[in-house]
Design goal:
Helix content is about 75%, strand content about 0%. It has helices spanning about 15-20, 25-45, 50-65, 65-75, 80, 90-135. The protein is elongated, with a radius of gyration of 22 Å.
């Protein structure tokens, strides 16, 4: 956390919690870069490859599933990768900087799948209509 070491009970709201995080900590910058890279991979590189999207989705969901274990490990080893103890035991910090962006990426993947499905259904419906018109002639 930025400035002095604060207990979570001292923070009055979520916005104050966000403002208390030192966003320039190198590992946080790296984590945000990884989230941006994941979003770019989803939206650009794997746009037309459902298999890559599926395995990426599975990996992302599994990382969210293991967030509690990751948080426990990171809270005991914070001094090896961070300059200040920003990881607490209740999970608010890791949920904010780790799980929420991952879940947003999962929502992006699901939205992409819904969009592709509706496009495929529209193409199929148009082909069926053309076939019926062709048979009627």
């Amino acid at each position: 956390m930025c400035g002095e070491n604060r207990e979570l009970a001292e923070i009055s709201g979520y916005w104050a919690f966000l403002m208390s995080i030192n966003w320039r900590d190198p590992w946080l910058v790296g984590l945000m870069a990884a989230h941006i890279l994941t979003t770019t991979t989803i939206s650009v590189l794997s746009r037309n490859n459902v298999n890559i999207q599926f395995f990426l989705f599975l990996f992302l969901v599994l990382t969210v599933y293991f967030t509690k274990s990751i948080n426990e490990y990171a809270s005991s080893k914070w001094s090896t990768f961070s300059g200040q103890p920003s990881i607490e035991n209740n999970g608010l910090f890791i949920s904010t900087v780790f799980s929420i962006p991952i879940l947003l990426n999962c929502m992006l993947l699901i939205s992409t799948w819904f969009y592709n499905s509706t496009q495929a259904m529209a193409t199929l419906q148009a082909a069926q209509i053309r076939e019926r018109l062709h048979q009627q002639r």
